[in-house]
Design a protein that fits this description.
There is one protein chain. The chain starts with 9 loop residues before the first helix and ends with a helix. By secondary structure, the protein is α+β, with helices and mostly antiparallel strands. It contains three helices and three strands. It has one domain: Fe-S cluster assembly (FSCA) (GMP Synthetase, Chain A, domain 3), CATH 3.30.300.130. Strands 1-2-3 form a three-stranded mixed β-sheet, covered by helices on one side.
Length: 110
């Protein structure tokens, strides 16, 4: 994590948020949610409030109710983050094409 004690830029903070997201794994697939392509957008305003739009691999995912709150709690521990809001979105629908090459390799999808 960053060792910034004064001003941290939104880009630096976004990098720290992404690093935290890479520690959160989909409960059904052994790949982190960032590499899976579940994170659609990360927006950080001037007050260091973080808004994340994400999806799940399937609308009927058993963690749909609890997972956004779990992610909010973990991202809120990133230094310099003020508030975190995670919103589940279903458009566009997630497909395996959104996974990083590393995630596809890890799951043997090549």
């Amino acid at each position: 994590m960053s060792e910034h004690y004064f001003e941290i830029t939104a880009d630096e903070l976004k990098d720290d948020v992404i690093e935290m997201l890479k520690t959160i794994y989909d409960p059904e697939i052994p790949v982190n949610i960032y590499e899976l392509g579940l994170i659609y957008d990360i927006d950080i305003d001037d007050d260091k409030n973080v808004a994340i739009n994400m999806t799940l691999t399937a609308p009927g995912c058993p963690v749909a109710q609890s997972f956004p709150g779990d992610i909010e709690a973990k991202v809120s521990t990133v230094p310099n983050v003020n508030t975190v809001k995670v919103e589940l979105v279903w458009e566009p629908p997630w497909t395996k094409d959104q996974m990083s090459e590393a995630a596809q390799l890890q799951l043997g999808m090549f």
